[in-house]
Design a protein that fits this description.
Elements lengths: L1 H22 L26 E6 L4 E7 L17 E4 L2 H4 L9 H9 L2 E2 L8 H15 L3 E6 L1 H5 L10 E6 L2 E6 L8 H4 L3 H9 L2 H6 L12 H29 L2 E6 L3 H6 L8 H14 L2 E4 H12 L4 E2 L3 E4 L1 H16 L1
Parallel strand pairs: 3-4, 3-5, 5-8, 8-9
Antiparallel strand pairs: 1-2, 6-7, 10-11
Helix pairs in contact: 3-13, 4-9, 9-11
Length: about 350
């Protein structure tokens, strides 16, 4: 018993020592989300919240910032008379960059009145809800919709808390919201630097779960793939029909920023993150609808062939780096000028 108590005491002392040490270091702070409901059916954070970003065990690429009045990262406070709204997920949110290095920061420098209501985990259903919510408030001239592989690969699955997703019943498609209600423990847990280090920097829950995303297995199952295609096409039909209504109502142009398959570029086709059929289906819809498109695939291919410079933080982090954001802004500016 004395040995066991000694071991437990040593563990407690070690944990307290780590906690004290990590409190002095730039551990990823995490950001508290605001509760979502039918009145505010989109993911956003508590406003005016300071945060620290760092990556991995070594606390690399430390960044600091504050959420906007509307609860978004790397966005000015949203106001009427917007020139551009940029929607998307964590690629646009871009904790790992400075604001001036993001695509929205670069566009704002060039055009002014550019806002980015973007949140980690957003998909096409969220983009539609954000358009419905912010276009009446801003009457934005243009809305840029960022699309990445999982927006199509997971299009028929329920969303995470705080997000929206496409529902499929009797051949009809609608938008459904997954409400977010903060746990009573979260605020207290976030005070511990040791727990935040384990969760955000080491990502221990991800390692422990070892879960495979549901869309990974669909390509190996004929029935699942057929269902994916049918629901993907039905969701895209609904999505673009609703965008058309918003375009008529507010006169807003929709421009699409489509991620490239960077894994395929780096590996010369040996790996892929964009199922070719999903990407082709999306681009065909955009061409048919007459939407302006900044397709980053050929842009990234040319940049890699010319400079051999990565456009992301792979292999540790697949998010765009400042190079990709600069290339995207360069592609978008002529489209926005038109």
């Amino acid at each position: 018993m004395r040995f066991i108590l000694s071991v437990l005491g040593g563990v407690v002392l070690a944990a307290l020592g780590l906690e004290a040490t990590l409190q002095c270091l730039p551990v990823h702070s995490g950001v508290r989300m605001a509760q979502s409901s039918a009145a505010t059916p989109y993911a956003h954070y508590l406003p005016g919240q300071s945060y620290v970003y760092s990556h991995g065990w070594a606390l690399a690429n430390m960044q600091r910032g504050t959420t906007s009045r509307d609860g978004f990262v790397h966005s000015k406070d949203i106001a009427a008379g917007a020139n551009v709204l940029v929607t998307g997920d964590s690629f646009i949110e871009s904790y790992m960059l400075r604001y001036e290095d993001t695509v929205q920061g670069r566009l704002d420098t060039a055009l002014g009145k550019v806002y980015a209501p973007a949140s980690s985990g957003n998909g096409l259903a969220d983009a539609l809800v954000l358009a419905r919510h912010f276009l009446p408030l801003t009457h934005a001239k243009t809305m840029v919709v960022f699309v990445e592989p999982f927006d199509l690969r997971l299009i028929e699955y329920p969303a995470g808390r705080g997000h929206n997703y496409f529902g499929f019943d009797d051949g009809k498609v609608d938008i459904r919201h997954m409400p977010y209600v903060e746990s009573n423990l979260k605020e207290k847990v976030l005070r511990s630097a040791l727990l935040r280090y384990a969760y955000y920097n080491l990502k221990l829950p991800d390692w422990a779960s070892g879960k495979v995303k549901p869309a990974e297995a669909a390509s190996d199952n004929g029935a699942a793939l057929a269902q994916h295609r049918a629901r993907r096409d039905a969701a895209l039909d609904y999505f673009f029909a609703e965008l058309g209504k918003l375009q008529q109502q507010y006169g807003t142009r929709f421009v699409f920023l489509v991620d490239g398959d960077r894994e395929a570029i780096y590996s010369q086709g040996k790996k892929t993150t964009w199922p070719a059929e999903d990407r082709a289906a999306l681009l065909a819809r955009l061409r048919t609808g007459g939407y302006a498109v900044a397709d980053m695939q050929p842009v990234f291919e040319r940049h890699w062939a010319t400079y051999g410079e990565r456009m992301d933080f792979l292999p540790m982090d697949g998010h765009w780096n400042r190079v990709a954001h600069a290339l995207a802004a360069k592609e978008l500016l002529p489209l926005l000028a038109k």
